[in-house]
Amino acid sequence: MAGAFLTDILPQLASGAAHTHALGFAFEGLHDDASPRIRVPHRPDLVGDPDTGVLAGGLVTTLLDHVGGLAVWVAMDAFRPIATLDLRVDYMRAAEPGRDLLAQARCFRLTPTIAFVRGWAFEDDPSNPVAASQAAYVVNQNRTMRTEAAA
Amino acid sequence: MSDALLDRLPYARFLNLQTRVSGDELTVVMPFEDRLIGNPMLPALHGGSTAALLEMTAMAQVALAFPGARLPRPINVTVAYLRTGRPADVFARARINRAGRRVAHVEAQAWQEARDQPIASLTAHFLLDDRD
Asked: Contact A18/B71, CB-based, under 8 Å?
């Protein structure tokens, strides 16, 4: 369960870096005390295939990578350096054209060096995902970051 | 023309991806911009932007080899992050390992200063447009 310090900075961690800001990521709360959720808006410049109007697969990958990182910080209840080791995304169905996408993730195993995370991207319901991810992050439990800037 | 493919895909344009064609092989460049930064402290590129470059490169390479009415659609992708992406241009190339009638298996790599020191590697399956 995330303490007040982390909960306070999660919105900044969700959207505070240049790339996540440019993509319009927005923090959508912490679900079940463990699963951060973020939203990416449907925007014409984020579409993958102009013939379908669906958001780009690469954007979904970025969304799942990022929300997975948030889930690791929630599991650690701290903001420490992490790095994505690898990330697999299954694209399970086409996203609905013109709709925002949500993503949430959960860290289901945290060791002193590695965090294992699963995530989902969806329009309304996590049980009907557009895409699902499984990722591993390298974590450093002994170092604390000195600034509050986003990763 | 696949060299124009990424030029007409909105998200590829958002990332300002530039396609170069050498015979039957594409090289895609993602020029550095501040808005690609994911970690301002290092600073480092957001891994997602590198993953998107790899995925777009793989898709464009498949579309070049197997032109169809519809774009190749990703079934799944796996990205391994090998090195920190520095605030500099990123290059990517993809190779089709096998293409059946419906599915293509593709590998792609992204690098910066040296091609033999990739910053990320992608393995992906794409669903091909029907080609009977």
From this structure: no
